[in-house]
Amino acid sequence: MKKEQKFEEAMEQLEAIVAKLGDETTPLEEALALYADAAEKVRFCSDKLSHAEIKIAEIRATIAEKEEEDDRV
User: Fold this and answer.
1) Which of 44, 20, 23, 46 is nearest to 34 (CA)?
2) How far apart are CA 50 and CA 44, in angstroms?
3) What's the rounded Cα separation, in Å, for the pair 38 and 20?
């Protein structure tokens, strides 16, 4: 079974990729592969952040509902 990657791990990998891409000695073929990998990491991180935003909105809505119920009592 494949271990699910964590957001923080993906960000660290992205930072390493950016450093390699910034190195002028990185060969073009390697840079292209790194760019493709970076694009996947960016998509993964973006998805994780979107899910976190949705979860935060759900939590806020739940808290607001409970506060409204408390105010009615």
Assistant:
1) 20
2) 10
3) 11
